[in-house]
Specification:
By secondary structure, the chain is α+β, with helices and mostly antiparallel strands. It has one domain: 4'-phosphopantetheinyl transferase domain (Ribosomal Protein L22, Chain A, Alpha-Beta Complex), CATH 3.90.470. Helices cover 38% and strands 30% of the residues. The chain has helices at residues 12-18, 22-28, 31-38, 44-62, 89-95, and strands at 2-11, 73-77, 83-87, 99-107, 110-118. Strands 1-5-4 form a three-stranded antiparallel beta sheet. A two-stranded antiparallel sheet has the order 2-3. Helix 1 (12-18) packs across helix 4 (44-62) and helix 3 (31-38) packs antiparallel against helix 4 (44-62).
């Protein structure tokens, strides 16, 4: 059963400026995400924009915007590069039992993310 869907767009140019701001990175991203972004070379700003859009999309899917500790929803990647969330703390409890799908794309100076939350049959955890 679909419990929520969220979509967000983020300007890559905006993230190019923030990429050098360590306070911004520490506030919104885990050390693992920051390392991943920095490893992306010329694509770092696009990657950062995608991660930020993913957090916004998750908040919209949950119905509350960014009313959660953003570091409790870490964006990770499978070996093939597909993004997914790894939840911790209160976010793990909030989404427990739910399937959370994530897709991130980039084009024309914009990163987009879509998040879909599905609860188990009969459940209402998100």
């Amino acid at each position: 059963m679909c419990k929520g869907i969220g979509l967000d767009l983020c300007s890559i140019g905006r993230m190019e400026k923030l990429l050098q701001d360590d306070r911004f990175l520490r506030r919104y991203f885990t050390p693992g995400e920051t390392d991943y972004v920095r490893s992306r070379g010329n694509g770092a700003a696009a990657t950062l924009a995608g991660l930020f859009a993913a957090r916004e999309a998750l908040g919209k899917a949950l119905g509350g915007g960014l009313d959660y500790d953003l570091k409790e929803a870490e964006v990770c990647h499978t070996e093939s590069g597909a993004p997914y969330f790894r939840f911790s703390g209160s976010m793990a409890e909030r989404t427990g039992g739910c399937r959370v799908s994530l897709s991130i794309s980039h084009d024309g100076g914009i990163a987009a993310a879509v998040c879909l939350i599905e609860s188990p049959e009969g459940g209402n955890k998100a």
